[in-house]
């Protein structure tokens, strides 16, 4: 998002129209901020912190789309791969929050949303997904309400992650401009 200041401006104008420049953000404001919500989903799609899911195991012989998987197989689902390569994500390398909204710019797009699965899916999906989603929403809104974030002044922006079990951002000395 840092690489797209105009997109930040669009989110900020949505924030200001709902809670103003100095208002306090509440979770009950989220339904009125469809663009900010879509931008967070897009952020998690393109910059997912978990490159691979955790390992699962089949407890019975299983078949997925005609592919037989015997009992006791270890399964490592590639969440990031799905979010990059699913056919519902048109021009998937581009950062476009609009892909999670219908043409009216407000209604959530169920087709794309159901393929954005940073928290995995079904019974073992992230146990604190709702808490993480709250933290992401409140944190992002509180920052963008007050600041325009720009890339470092004297160095190139490096958005490539430190690779590991989870992806960690590299240090970048950002500019935070009060708006
Ligand atoms: C952006 C933040 C987060 C992401 C992307 C994320 C993602 C995930 C993923 C992909 C799994 C594995 C699901 C599976 O086995 O298929 C998981 C499991 C889990 N997560 Fe998160 N998580 C996040 C934040 C959190 C937070 C803040 C907490 C706790 C405060 C948490 C608690 C857990 C727990 C307890 C499990 C294990 C669930 C189980 O095996 O039944 N997560 N998470």
How does this structure look, described?
One of its GO terms (molecular function) is iron ion binding. InterPro entries: Cyt_P450, Cyt_P450_E_grp-I, Cyt_P450_sf. Heme binds at residue 126. It comes from Pristionchus pacificus (Parasitic nematode worm). With 179 residues, this protein is α+β, with helices and mostly antiparallel strands. It has one domain (5-178): Cytochrome p450 (Orthogonal Bundle). The protein contains 5 helices and 8 strands, in the order ααββββαααββββ. A two-stranded antiparallel sheet has the order 1-4. A two-stranded antiparallel ribbon has the order 2-3. A hairpin with a 5-residue loop joins strand 6 and strand 7 (168-169). It starts with a helix and ends with a strand. It binds protoporphyrin IX containing FE.
Mean pLDDT score: 95
**Do you know the CATH architecture?**
Orthogonal Bundle
For the report, how would you describe the main beta sheet?
2 strands, antiparallel
Compute the number of structural domains: 1
Can you write the helix and strand succession as a string? HHEEEEHHHEEEE
Please report the number of helical segments: 5
Family: Belongs to the cytochrome P450 family.
Cofactor: heme
Pfam family, one: p450
Keywords: Heme, Iron, Metal-binding, Monooxygenase, Oxidoreductase
């Amino acid at each position: 998002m840092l690489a797209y200041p105009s997109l930040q401006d669009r989110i900020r104008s949505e924030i200001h129209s709902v809670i103003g420049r100095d208002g306090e953000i509440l979770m009950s404001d989220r339904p009125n901020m469809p663009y900010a919500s879509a931008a967070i989903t897009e952020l998690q799609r393109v910059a997912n912190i978990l490159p691979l899911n955790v390992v699962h195991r089949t407890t019975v012989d299983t078949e997925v789309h005609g592919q037989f998987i015997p009992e006791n197989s270890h399964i490592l689902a590639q969440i990031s791969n799905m979010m990059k390569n699913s056919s519902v994500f048109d021009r998937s390398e581009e950062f476009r929050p609009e892909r999670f909204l219908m043409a009216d710019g407000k209604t959530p797009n169920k087709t794309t949303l159901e393929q954005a699965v940073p928290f995995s899916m079904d019974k073992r999906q992230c146990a604190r997904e709702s808490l993480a989603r709250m933290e992401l929403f409140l944190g992002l809104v509180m920052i963008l309400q007050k600041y325009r974030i720009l890339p470092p002044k004297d160095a190139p922006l490096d958005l490539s992650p430190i690779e590991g079990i989870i992806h960690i951002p590299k240090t970048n000395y950002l500019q935070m401009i009060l708006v």
